[in-house]
User: Fold this.
Amino acid sequence: MSFEDIAKAAKSAFEESQLVPPSERINALRAIRLQLEKDKTEILAANVKDLKVCLLFSRSLHMNSSL
Assistant:
């Protein structure tokens, strides 16, 4: 999926969300916030893992390009 596709999907989702009554959007956002708070430790751990993989991949590319 390209960045353009992601942007189009985000715009479409936003436009569709405007059809939902404000009180329902607020309730949905609160539920999302609560779930993110509940999963915060796991999310941050996964982010650290992703960053480590990116760093290793970046180092590997750098080492291969200097040959």
